[in-house]
Amino acid sequence: MKILVGIKRVVDYNVRIRVLSDGSGVDTDGVKMSVNPFDEIALEEALRIRDAGNAEEVIVVSAGGDECQQQLRTGLAMGADRAIQIQTSADLQPLSTARAFLKIIEREDPGLVLLGKQAIDDDNSQTAQMLAALWDRPQATFASKLELDGQSATVTREVDAGLETIEVDLPAVISVDLRLNEPRFVKLPDIMKAKRKPLDVIPLEELGVAAEGNLEVGHYAPPPQREKGIMVEDAAQLVEELKNRGLI
Amino acid sequence: MDYPEIREAIAKLCKQFPGKYWQQLDREHAYPTEFVRTVAEAGYLSVMIPEEYGGSGLGLPAACAVLEEIQRSGCNGGACHAQVYTMGTLLRHGSKKQKEHYLPRVASGELRLQAFAVTEPASGTDTTRIRTRAVRDGNDYVVNGQKVFISRAEHSDLMILLVRTTPRDQVKKTTEGMSVLIVDLREAVGNGLTIKPIDTMMNHSSTELFIDNLRVPVENLIGEADKGFRYILDGMNAERILIASECIGDARFFIEKASSYATERVVFARPIGQNQGVQFPIAKAYAQTEAAALMVNHAAQLFEVGKPCGAEANMAKMLAAEAAWFAGDTCVQTFGGYGFAKEYDIERKFRETRLYQVAPISTNLILSHIATHVLNMPKSF
Ligand SMILES: Cc1cc2nc3c(=O)[nH]c(=O)nc-3n(C[C@H](O)[C@H](O)[C@H](O)COP(=O)(O)OP(=O)(O)OC[C@H]3O[C@@H](n4cnc5c(N)ncnc54)[C@H](O)[C@@H]3O)c2cc1C
Ligand SMILES: Cc1cc2nc3c(=O)[nH]c(=O)nc-3n(C[C@H](O)[C@H](O)[C@H](O)COP(=O)(O)OP(=O)(O)OC[C@H]3O[C@@H](n4cnc5c(N)ncnc54)[C@H](O)[C@@H]3O)c2cc1C
Questions:
Q1: How many domains does chain B have?
Q2: Which residues contact A156 (CB under 8 A, 6 or more apart)?
Q3: Ramachandran area for residue B214 (φ above 0: left; ψ -120 to 50: alpha; else beta)
Q4: How far apart are CA B316 and CA B322, in angstroms?
């Protein structure tokens, strides 16, 4: 079985982001970029599945400009067998990404697709769901535990009410949550080896997928500054204060 | 910045060793065994060992990235930096047999080559006056003498030792007559070598060595007898550039801490960083650090292509150590009272980074080198 893992290049989670003064986006100039942390967890899970003998190959896929090869190389250094860059200079929306991934699925025929539950840049949390629908295969989102059993997977999902356990038939799309595992750090010899692992570049046009999206972003703005809080004496006063502000 | 993949990997590795880990070691005066083992096993201490001996064969700039990033993340590479460069003496001047015997196991982390013994109580910076003597007796050298401030000797398997094989008054040039020996500490301790820890301002595992009729096999001599000083000098440029990178890492740690604290900490109803009295010193520390980093980079590139880089390596070490110290002082000031509280790690890093204006070479000696070797002024000693 092959496992396909999505890798997105995003602003590092430690960076305090700044909105561009014209509101057209976030300043990424000279800013540290990393693998989306949820994708790293997805990759870690895929590697563990492979190393336990339940898959033969782990392929990391990223859609983006050539800069994202750095994140693909990180994935290869962690232990992925090969990488595919879907080359585009456009900032893809989730639906386009899902369409492009579907084309890769058609070429590679994976038994499992693991994605992060969301990318920490736009926090969309859509690609996995859209991909499963386009592919017409089961999906299990927000996985905090994953067990493979031949032709199916048992997935514990983190939902608002707590945990939910479901079983999905494979092939399936599974999006992973924070508590699934603790990703490994990369060893130097593996960084060196990663330079020699295959990385295929496929232009987006070659997949027949259009880069234009159907969403239009108005503008970006930083969240308003937090106002000074007050100390309340007891629950009654808390309720009172919330009422006064029209919050309940 | 160069080597982004190495920097990212180190940052992630170091996250497993947060401030709490170092604070506890500090309280217990304990060596960061777990940290050093993790970094070594992940291959980051053998960056400069050639691939044929099991290292990754990357150059000095890659090693600089490793050590800078360790310091920047709040960890203390002082516990293991010697493993990165001490092997250089062995690599460049050791015999094929010695290299094959030691290097692969140093590369894998199995053998720790962390100790490097030059300094003596009575000679200090004036290395040619070392008194530790090695006298040939059959297939052994018999060594007698004393060394001081020898770091990590209790946490290393091997040690590079500088000794006099011909007395100073019997050589034409005072830099002649010294030799380099590899000492197997596992055998030496209790058989002529006594190691006594020195309590220092920071947790650096420095020790005093008492050497009393220690027998070292002649096959452990590196290169030729009496030419050892040159072998040691040879490794010093790499050492200075690497230590300078650590200082850049320290400086960046302090600047990142100070600028984010100054943005968040509100007194007088505004972030303290809104006051120019607070923000200007941090900006100045940044400018100094970036300038020093350029010199470190320049020196590392010269070293890498085999060009002379003595003056540049020395200037890089001096400028980076000073930038780190100024950034540290600024950071303590920015944190106010909290800069003194151990849980913020500022005071620990502040103590740790002070060392690099004294060791491995003090600022005065660097200035003297520039004055006499670059500017051709008369030598004072
Ligand atoms: C924590 C720690 C770890 C160390 N680790 C090691 C180690 O692993 N291995 C090792 O071999 N050594 C080690 N050292 C020793 C270190 O390299 C020496 O302390 C350093 O070289 C200075 O030597 P000294 O202490 O004898 O000072 P001295 O030589 O006594 O100098 C004292 C001061 O006088 C100044 N001075 C001396 N001569 C002149 C001159 N001619 N002109 C102007 N100023 C001068 C110096 O700059 C210095 O400021 C370590 C030291 C410390 C503190
Ligand atoms: C060991 C120790 C013992 C102490 N003992 C006592 C004690 O016995 N009793 C007691 O009451 N307190 C004590 N303190 C507290 C000490 O007085 C405070 O730490 C000090 O007043 C600074 O306050 P702060 O730490 O809250 O810093 P902050 O007020 O947060 O200031 C942080 C930095 O911002 C600067 N800053 C703030 N506002 C401005 C501005 N408008 N313009 C320019 N710069 C600004 C400050 O100068 C400082 O450098 C002690 C502190 C320590 C570390």
A1: 3
A2: A143, A144, A145, A146, A163, A164, A165
A3: beta
A4: 10
Structural domain contains residue B380: no
Measuring CA to CA, which residue among A88, A37, A41 is closest to residue A63?
A88
Instruction: Give SS3 for B169.
Output: helix
CA B206/CA B344 separation, integer angstroms: 25
In this structure, are B85 and B174 located in the same domain?
A: no
Domain boundary among B202, B226, B250: B226
pLDDT of residue A14: 86
Q: Which of B8, B51, B83 to probe the A interface (max A CBs under 10 A)?
A: B8
Q: Where are the domains of chain A?
A: 2-215
What share of chain B has pLDDT > 70, as a percent? 100
* Cross-chain Cβ contact A187/B9 below 8 Å: yes
Find the domain containing B205 and state its range: 114-226
Q: How many residues does chain B have?
A: 381
Over residues B282-340, the pLDDT tens digits come to 999 999 999 999 999 999 999 999 999 999 999 999 999 999 999 999 999 999 999 99
Contacts of B111 (CB under 8 A, 6+ apart): B102, B105, B157, B158
Across chain A, mean pLDDT equals 95
| Number of C-beta neighbours around residue B98 at 10 A | 18
| Positions of E strands within chain B | 113-117, 133-137, 140-151, 158-164, 178-184, 193-197, 206-217, 221-222, 266-267, 270-271
In tens, the pLDDT along B70-123 reads 999 999 999 999 999 998 999 999 999 999 999 999 999 899 999 999 999 999
Residue B75 CA, chain-centre distance (Å), reads 14
Query: Which ligand 2 atom lies nearest to the CA of residue B335?
Result: 32
Q: Is B278 in the pocket of ligand 2 (CB under 6 A)?
A: yes
Classify residue B381: in a domain, yes or no. no
Q: Any idea what the CATH number is for the domain that residue B150 is in?
A: 2.40.110.10
DSSP E strand boundaries for B153-258:
158-164, 178-184, 193-197, 206-217, 221-222
Asked if residue B123 and residue B91 are part of one domain, the reply reads no
Overall fold of domain A2-215 = Rossmann fold (3.40.50)
Nearest Cα neighbor of B5 from B71, B68, B49, B65 is B65
Chain B hits for A188, Cβ within 8 Å: 6, 9, 42-44, 46-47, 56
- What's the pLDDT at A213? 84
Is residue B295 a contact partner of residue B318, using CB atoms and an 8 Å limit? no
- CB–CB of B46 and A188 under 8 A? yes
β-pairing verdict for A172-176 and A57-64:
unpaired
B123, part of any domain = yes
Q: What is the rounded CA–CA span in Å between residue B222 and residue B90?
A: 7
| DSSP E strand stretches across A117-223 | 139-149, 152-159, 162-169, 172-176, 199-203
Same domain flag for B276 and B365: yes
Instruction: Please state the ipTM of this predicted complex.
Output: 0.88
State pTM to two decimals: 0.91
Dihedral angle, C-alpha B78, B84, B90, B91, nearest 10 °: -160
C-alpha–C-alpha distance, residues A243 and A154, integer Å: 44
